[in-house]
Design goal:
The chain is built from 14 helices and 17 strands. By secondary structure, the chain is α+β, with helices and mostly antiparallel strands. The radius of gyration is 25 Å and the shape is globular.
Amino acid sequence: MPIIAACIVPHPPLAIPAVGRGQELEIMDTVRALKEVARRIGELEPDTVIFISPHAVAYADYIHLAPGDSASGDMSRFGAPGCRFKVNYDAELCAVVAAAAKAIDFPAGTLGQREPELDHGCTVPLYYISPALSSDCRVLRVSVSGLSAGEHYRCGMLLAESVEKLGRRAVVVASGDLSHRLKAKGPYGFDPAGPEFDRAVTAAMGAGDFLSFLTLDTQLCNDAGECGLRSFQIMAGAFDGRAVRSELLSYEGPFGVGYGVAWFKPAAPDSQRLLLERLQERNREALAATRAGEDALVRLARQSLEYYVQTGKAMPLPEGLPEEFLKQRAGAFVSLKKHGQLRGCIGTTAPTRDTLAQEVIANAISAGARDPRFASVGPNELDEIVYSVDVLSAAEPVSGPEALDPQRYGVIVTSGRRRGLLLPMLEGVDTVESQLAIACDKAGIGPHEKYSIERFEVVRHK
């Protein structure tokens, strides 16, 4: 039996009266919608409820399934320690999902359990849903990760396949708030991307437009400070290939954080909703357009890394390079992104090779294979990576922050042997103060230590 229903719910602790102490009255549309979702789930009498939470243990490259027979949690961190929860896990379903993931080398399973307690992404919905469940209803708790939208969707497909294999009656609860940047007086301030993100996501909820969950602009999502999108992507995958009846039950954001509640019921099979295939085709088209538009220096970086990954050797200088690449010497940074997320970045602040071309060839290899923050790029990733190259001018000392501009200049901070560099024109680095703070943090320079500042300009190639 496939997934019988799903819902999207927020998790504001204030929705629990013992925490809200009257503030829950300001989000009564959300509270009423949560009660309605609980009523509908209860009527379906599920064997298992699958909770997907962005606040469960999370890894960059692995989707965690909570192991064990049971788990408990409370609202003590929100001032209500007497509000307690306990669930019994569906250990058999968890094992089947983990085995299915292992069989196809999909990065999901029960490894890396660090926080067995129920997180508030589960406990807040549980406050409303658990009274409607039978005593023998079980729970599967699933995390999100730093993987791509497509991989989260594939996880949902695995969940649905495993549920069907065991003949479970299962409901998916995708826990997640929307934007955290709706109001200047909210806890995270205001960004125009916040309302824009919420409009897009609530429209997708109401229309059952799950492809929109997978294709929202990465920068918009980051600027909006969204919370639950990856939960929604997993939920969407549980309905792959099926029509869906959808209903947006409520939306509000009085505290500066968006809360949306939606309900979904599967309908007949629908070949137009094989969304993983459609997403992959869109990604191929987008990457082909990027490749067609890349300049010669970016193409050189890409060819260098591809050659190294495929042969284990550095690429010799290709013929036909522009003359300027063979005459100029300069420091250069090569940056890699995969699905809009950083995948590697290594560079040199001053020339270390005879030519700019050799500098880029060497630094592209380092960005893909020697950035200590990431595993080495594998052959199966080469068709998903987007490159950029920054060619640096010579650094010059400046007397203080007043000579800086994070959109024009990169910075180098130095204290003794400690040295930190930050490129200009970085997403989310809009002030000199934040630019210097990040550079100092990279160097290990404390906030009250003295340091010298240098600035440099770059020519960015895409």
